[in-house]
Amino acid sequence: MSEKLVERLQAALSAEHSAIFAYARLGVLLDKAGQKEARAGEEMHRTRRDALLVQLAELKAAAPVAQAGYALPFPVTDKATALKLAAYVEDGVASTWRAALADAEGEVRRRILVAYTDAAVRGTRWRRLAEIVPATVPYPGRKT
Fold first, then answer.
1. What integer is the mean pLDDT of 10-18?
2. Would you tell me the crossing angle of helices 79-101 and 32-58 to the nearest 10 degrees?
3. What is the pTM of this model?
4. What is the CATH number of the domain that holds 122?
5. Sign of the alpha-carbon torsion through 86, 123, 144, 105
6. What Gene3D superfamilies does the annotation carry (predicted)?
């Protein structure tokens, strides 16, 4: 595995840590359906984080540790801003997985593509719930 791909997997792990933190913050501001969606999202990010920790350990590569806290990109004070944060987080996660695709092959590439697709779909779901238009983006995770 290339050094560049290892760095991109480390970046993906950092994004997963950040997503877990954000989901814990935004879930309390959502209605029951939104909380259920947030729990599912947080659980998926925890699963991906754990898989990345194992993968990096197997590669004998350093694994970035989660920070004690993360600065949110904007104040999250109600349901609308919580939904906006969820979409923002998934876009960020999609961006890191998208970057990793370029350097991956075989089974590693397949796992990265699954993670990328999941973040893109989750981001769309959150944008729909937040009534953000457009709900879909042409290239999820691409910096505009």
1. 98
2. 30
3. 0.94
4. 1.20.1260.10
5. positive
6. 1.20.1260.10
